[in-house]
Amino acid sequence: MENAIEYRGLFRAALDAADRAYAPYSKFRVGAALLLPDGSIVTGVNVENRSYGLTNCAERSAIYAAVSSGVREFTALAIATPDAEYPVSPCGACRQVISEFMAGSIPVIFGSSETDLVHTTVSKLFPFDALHELSDR
Ligand code: THU
Predict the structure, then answer these.
(1) More exposed terminus of the chain, fewer Cβ within 10 Å: N or C?
(2) Ligand 1 centroid vs 106 CA: distance in angstroms?
(3) pLDDT at 91
(4) CA 103 – CA 78 distance, rounded (Å)
(5) Superfamily per CATH, domain 6-135
(6) Within 10 Å of residue 99's Cβ, how many Cβ atoms?
């Protein structure tokens, strides 16, 4: 895929972030890294809770951290799942949240290691996206 090299650094940032995951229950660490238009990166990790359903995935942690700091525009998203043996794609809830802030053409890179990356897009992960007209932003 185009820009595959460029996104390797973004994936590495997601992989580094995964070390900061709070995942004492699943022991499954996830890191996410958002690329901003100015080239900077915002990361997020999964944050679990002993009331399991309160867990926040890495993708949503990253997006909420960015939005909380005033950033709403992203040019790519990378997700690292170093405890899996195959590339693990974002969960359904995260796909909905990703679609809130990222256009269908935005590249998404995910994988468990740098040597086994899947390159896709928001629209491939979340087809038939709808209802953006409900927002006036
Ligand atoms: N998880 C993520 O953070 N992102 C994903 O895309 C898949 C799942 C987290 C949630 C939970 O803490 C652990 O991984 C196992 O499901």
Answers:
(1) C
(2) 21
(3) 98
(4) 15
(5) Cytidine Deaminase, domain 2 (3.40.140.10)
(6) 19
Name the DSSP class of 134. Answer: G
The one catalytic residue in 48, 59, 114, 133 is 59
**Ligand 1 neighbourhood includes 41 CB (under 6 angstroms):** no
Atom 2 in ligand 1: residue holding the nearest Cα: 57
**pLDDT one-digit tens code per residue, 100-124:** 999 999 999 999 999 999 999 999 9
Instruction: Give the start-to-end residue ranges of the domains of the chain.
Output: 6-135
Judge if the beta carbon of residue 94 lies within 6 A of ligand 1.
yes
- Give the Cα-Cα-Cα angle 131, 136, 137 (nearest 5 degrees): 105
Residue minimizing CA distance to atom 14 of ligand 1: 28
Task: For strands 76-80 and 107-111, give the pairing.
Answer: parallel
The answer to whether 100 is a known catalytic residue is no
CB neighbours of 5 closer than 8 A, spacing ≥ 6? none
**Is 90 exceeded by the pLDDT of residue 3?**
no
Inform me whether the pLDDT recorded for 45 exceeds 90: yes
Does residue 30's CB lie within 6 angstroms of at least one atom of ligand 1?
Answer: yes
